[in-house]
Amino acid sequence: MLLPNRHGNTGDYRYGFQGQEMDNEVKGEGNSVNYKFRMHDPRVGRFFTMDLLFKDYAELTPYQFSSNAPMHSPELEGLETGFDLRFSRSERALLKGEITQKEFMAQNKAEAVGALFAGVILFDIYVTQGRISMALASSDMYQSMLETDRAYAAKERGDDVAAEKHLIKSGDLSKPMLFEVLGGTAAYGLGKVIRAASKLNKSGSKLVSTKMLEKYRESATYGNPAETFIAPAKEIDDLLSQGFSRNEIAKKLGINDPDFLQGDLIRIDIDDTLAKELNVREPTGSEVGANENFIPKGKTSGGVTEKVVDGIPKKEIRVKVTKIKE
């Protein structure tokens, strides 16, 4: 029902909060308005009757259903924006203890980053005709190369942890370039390959003690510079996963050098490419380090597959050195 003298040509604005007709002539300027079962006072931005749904919205007070911004955020009748709805769900989940603060921040960051990239992509398509994406791709490739250089520098200093971090970052930075050149599906697959390679695609592994390495402290290689034994990385993974003692590991590998039992146990990994460059080959039994436990056809006395490579260089980025926890 319309108020007296109120019609479409009235100079005063006809409707107020939630599309309700204004009744300032009756109740005065800025009076309260009703909405279904709630009463709201726009002068303070609050409901002054308890909201019937307040138990479902832990982030609000019983008198604050519309978050103190009722004109900006319509009541939950299906009119709210998608982002506002997702954000309020995240807030409620956080306040109810269903998610952690870290998870809450991650969800909101993902929303914001997704919206930002969507805007940049649309702008790039319709305004710059692809110049932004090309610039991003070339920039990331440059940064990727810088990270690779930093990885080599860290390796030179003997900081394997920093070297691996820089190499991983280098692989991640190359992904935008792949999306630019190859498209999403191919780039996703290649991006995973790059990340795996940056983490070091282990091909061969060697177990040695710090006591044994001390013999070659001044050498540019880990152990004997002429040649050294390695085993498939997977077999070393399996060996270490069985909880063997150092003595039992030595027997499996056919090692009888007492120095293997002294100091920390060290694992040295190399990738496929480096193994080939180091002339990976079948052992003959005449190698330095071969002993009476040697069995022809490439198996240790404990049944582990073994190969021989030239000395493994200490300053090579494709070498990973790990101290084994015992």
Structural notes for this entry:
This protein has 326 residues and is an alpha+beta fold. The protein folds into three domains: 11-73, no CATH class; 101-195, no CATH class; 202-323. The protein is built from eleven helices and ten strands. It has helices at residues 24-27, 82-95, 101-128, 131-157, 160-173, 175-182, 184-198, 210-213, 233-240, 246-253, 272-277; strands at 33-35, 38-41, 46-47, 202-209, 221-222, 228-232, 265-271, 307-309, 312-313, 319-323. Strands 8-6-4-7-10 form a five-stranded antiparallel β-sheet. A three-stranded antiparallel β-sheet has the order 1-2-3, with no helix packed on it. Helix 4 (131-157) runs antiparallel to helix 5 (160-173), helix 5 packs antiparallel against helix 7 and helix 6 runs antiparallel to helix 7. The protein is elongated, with a radius of gyration of 34 Å. Mean pLDDT is 68; it is low at 68-86, 135-139 and 172-201.
